[in-house]
Amino acid sequence: MLSTTASDLYWMSRYLERAENLARMLEVSYSLSLMPQAGRSDGRAELAMSLLAAGTLDDYNERYGELNTERMLHFFALDETNPGSIYCCLQAARANAHVVRGRITADMWENINATWLEMRNIASNGLARYGISHFCEWVKERSHLFRGATSGTIMRNDAYCFIRLGTFLERADNTLRLLDARYEMFGEESEEVSDNSARGYYQWSALLRALSSFEAFNEIYRNAPGAEQVSEMLLLRGDVPRSLHACIEELDHILASLPGSNGRAAQRLAAELNARLRYTGIDEILGLGLHLWLADFISQVRHLGQTVHESYLEVV
Hints:
316 residues; globular
């Protein structure tokens, strides 16, 4: 496969996964912002947490300065000038899909093209008319439909591998950033919130719901969510689909299945990260410090993405 084709497939899936992840963050942060905030006059900090996790908080501050709920929602969801908005992610995903129409199925193309057309209609009408929760559910639903069309219609060839590669790299990065953003937003305050308090319960539950892992947590632990158990499940449980371990394990298998010797560096790095997670315990992570461990692994996932790009996606 040509590296340019592989790159378009890879980024098509990354942008779609990113749009879904952004919608998950926005939905949960918005819900929390509507709750009574201890020590705060409103829930703007909860919405700012989504911008922090997405890496766009500095861009927002540079443009607007003061945190404003309506501006933050627009900037995060529909801003055409913000490369990190849901709007721009879906636009980029559709553009990449258009380039590789010959390598994806008709069902995949029709789904992503229809998603973009409806996205433009939503943007023209504004979020107030559509509703934040409805909008976020729509983004997740369109992503699920595309993933289902991909799984059910495309051949299990290199194109499929690069689509999945983009999905799981983006998902791994999102899980890490959500955990780290929570730490950065609440700082030491988050450590002082009792896991048994109402506030602590809703904070951890919101994080689990953002990653569709609330039901899994209840099945595994059967008690109120706390820092240690939530971190263990979202980082080290290989049977939770959006956990870091599950994503890295998938990346390890996908890279190992790609032919040729160009990708040895990426394959080796993925295998090392997979082994590291398999033999790491939550006590070791918390002993080092959750924030330090997350920051280091975010860097490692970024390095893996760069190595994948250098090995497979650069034009030689």
